């Protein structure tokens, strides 16, 4: 703590004027948890904060993507009844809907997987259980994202 | 159940439970959904055959349930975001939950005919 004033008590009479003036400034008190050269560097990084922020940002984008998707698939133009290979071929002929589906696939899978990671951390109390559940979760997530991406990029309307 | 996962027991807790349950349901649906969509790389017949099951009355009811889960998760997710980022969010969290539920009911009524109409026609005849 750096103290410039050592003689005055610092406590003036309750109703009186402050003992400190421009020429006689109050002692500077450092914030108790300030990082200085002497304190150790944070070793944890900001992964959890990034994940927290990602949940919120991806959530906002997913509102548009997923509700738009449901509107197209279940409500407009005859609802589910119109869906079939020909319908998908028509939609993926447009790069716009390819990008839409690709973005929805990646964001929804990463958002959902991160949500499940939180849930596993909450309920699986044994370290070994957590390890296995997360291993299963990450495997399924990577597999699904890769498969979905491959399907969008390699779709062939003339497969037969 | 680990200690501390049930607390307070008011609207805030139940909306959190519902957010969690709907999130898990949607994730599992999405996993299956990407698998069934991948059938377009097998053959048009294989895809159309599986999609045919999506058009049966029973599955229509499940689809209505999926819509219910997504609409709740989406609306309540926006509420959670508002609580976190809006300076008055925490104070109005309960009002926002009732708004979420009101909008949810209206949207669910609106979705009834488009999602369940074809199933009703099939079951009760048109
Ligand atoms: C029962 C309701 C649903 C139906 C009938 C449906 C239908 C379809 C159809 C026909 C496609 C093929 C491509 C296209 O037309 O865009 C598709 C793709 C896709 N859907 Fe849905 N969908 C539904 C719900 C959802 C939901 C709730 C999500 C997200 C959580 C979702 C995410 C996706 C994704 C990511 C793709 C791309 C798949 C890939 O990359 O192979 N769908 N859906
Ligand atoms: C439709 C737009 C969506 C919005 C606005 C949204 C919003 C959110 C938010 C803000 C959270 C964080 C909650 C918290 O930290 O307490 C969350 C959690 C979660 N979301 Fe979503 N989400 C959406 C779509 C989805 C989809 C498509 C899935 C599944 C693939 C999903 C699965 C989950 C899961 C599993 C959690 C974790 C729940 C928990 O920890 O209790 N969400 N969502």
Strand/helix succession of chain A: HHHH
Our estimate of the beta-strand percent of chain A is: under 5%
Helix/strand class of chain B? mainly alpha
CATH superfamily of the domain at 47-154 in chain A: Fumarate reductase/succinate dehydrogenase, transmembrane subunit
Class per helix and strand makeup of chain A: mainly alpha
Q: How big is the Rg of chain B?
A: 19 Å
**Mean of all residue-level pLDDT scores of chain B:** 91
CATH class wording of the domain at 47-154 in chain A: Mainly Alpha
E-strand count of chain A = 0
Output the helix-strand order of chain B.
HHHH
Provide structural commentary.
The complex is a heterodimer of chains A (160) and B (126). In chain A, helix 1 (47-75) packs across helix 3 and helix 3 packs antiparallel against helix 4 (127-154). Chain A is built from four helices and no strands. Chain A has helices at 47-75, 85-91, 95-123, 127-154. With 160 residues, chain A is mostly helical. Chain A has a domain at 47-154: 3 helical TM bundles of succinate and fumarate reductases. Chain B is an all-alpha fold and 126 residues long. Chain B has a single domain, classed as Fumarate reductase/succinate dehydrogenase, transmembrane subunit (3 helical TM bundles of succinate and fumarate reductases, Up-down Bundle). Helix content of chain B is 79%, strand content 0%. Chain B has helices spanning 11-37, 44-54, 57-85, 93-124. The model of chain B has no long low-confidence stretch (mean pLDDT 91). The interface between A and B is large, with 40 and 40 residues. The structure holds protoporphyrin IX containing FE (2 copies). One protoporphyrin IX containing FE (HEM) sits between chains A (66, 69-70, 73-74, 80, 83, 88, 91, 97, 101, 104-105, 108, 148, 151-152) and B (26, 30, 33-34, 37-38, 54, 63, 66, 70).
């Amino acid at each position: 703590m750096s103290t410039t004033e050592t003689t005055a008590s610092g406590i003036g009479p309750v109703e009186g004027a402050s003992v400190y003036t421009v020429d006689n400034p109050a002692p500077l008190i450092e914030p108790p948890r300030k990082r200085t050269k002497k304190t150790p560097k944070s070793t944890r990084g900001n992964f959890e904060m990034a994940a927290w922020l990602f949940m919120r940002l991806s959530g906002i984008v997913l509102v548009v993507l997923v509700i738009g998707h449901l509107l197209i698939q279940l409500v407009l133009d005859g609802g589910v009844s119109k869906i079939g290979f020909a319908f998908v071929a028509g939609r993926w002929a447009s790069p716009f809907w390819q990008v839409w589906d690709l973005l929805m696939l990646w964001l929804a899978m990463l958002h959902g997987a991160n949500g499940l990671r939180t849930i596993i951390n909450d309920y699986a109390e044994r370290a070994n259980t957590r390890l296995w559940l997360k291993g299963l979760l990450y495997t399924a997530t990577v597999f699904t994202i890769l498969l979905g991406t491959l399907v969008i990029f390699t779709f062939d309307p003339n497969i037969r | 159940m680990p200690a501390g996962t049930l607390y307070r027991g008011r609207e805030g807790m139940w909306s959190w439970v519902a957010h969690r349950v709907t999130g898990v349901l949607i994730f599992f649906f999405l996993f299956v959904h990407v698998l069934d969509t991948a059938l377009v790389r097998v053959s048009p017949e294989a895809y159309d055959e599986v999609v045919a099951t999506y058009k049966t009355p029973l599955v229509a009811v499940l689809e209505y349930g999926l819509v219910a889960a997504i609409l709740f998760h989406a609306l309540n997710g926006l509420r959670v975001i508002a609580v976190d980022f809006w300076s008055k969010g925490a104070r109005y969290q309960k009002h926002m939950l009732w708004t979420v539920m009101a909008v949810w009911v209206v949207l669910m009524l609106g979705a009834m005919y488009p999602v369940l109409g074809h199933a009703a026609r099939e079951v009760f005849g048109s």
